[in-house]
Design brief:
172 residues, alpha+beta, Aminopeptidase, seven-stranded mixed β-sheet, 4 helices, globular
């Protein structure tokens, strides 16, 4: 297994922003829907967005993946643009006391550059505070999309730590 070196930045947000960003000015219908008991195949399709960034934490056998994503603390929402999946996020609400974690956040490649990331992240932030945690946290690393860290900061997240880690390279 090939290992890659990356710098991980942990960020935190302690309250909802005062003003959510405006809806993207695009002539398309946008819907963000909660997904309960997402089919494993559909989740795996959405998760493919992470291949380019070496996401591997959900490359699991069916039973282990189902335990992770169908667990009582997991919250998933999918952004649909004109009916097609354009992005998604996954929250872990309550595994850590008084904290919700934004586990995964992604815009599908064919929908990038339309202003959808800010729109979807605003939904993730609102959903992240639904259970009134004292903090919403997220981690990003230097293998993620280069716009990830600036977007999190623009939306109010503040870095609290950085660390170097070795992570498995995505291999098919």
């Amino acid at each position: 297994m090939k290992l890659l070196q990356t710098e991980v930045t942990q960020l935190v947000l302690h309250s909802l922003p005062k003003d959510p960003p405006p809806r993207p000015d695009i002539p398309r219908s946008l819907d963000v829907l909660k997904v309960r008991q997402i089919p494993l195949g559909y989740y795996r399709y959405l998760y493919t967005v992470g291949r380019a960034h070496h996401w591997t934490s959900r490359n699991l056998p069916d039973d282990a993946l189902a335990r992770e994503i169908h667990g009582p603390n997991t919250r998933l929402q999918v952004l649909y643009c004109d009916g097609g999946p354009a992005g998604w996020f996954e929250l872990d609400a309550g595994r850590a006391p008084k904290e919700t974690r934004l586990v995964h956040f992604a815009i599908m490649p064919e929908y990038r550059g339309l202003g959808l990331a800010r729109h979807l992240l605003a939904h993730a932030i609102i959903a992240g505070f639904e259970e009134q945690p004292s903090a919403l946290t997220v981690e990003t690393n230097t293998l993620d999309h280069p716009a990830a860290l600036p977007l999190y900061r623009k939306m109010g997240f503040r870095p609290v730590s950085r660390r170097l880690v070795s992570t498995p390279a995505y291999e098919e």
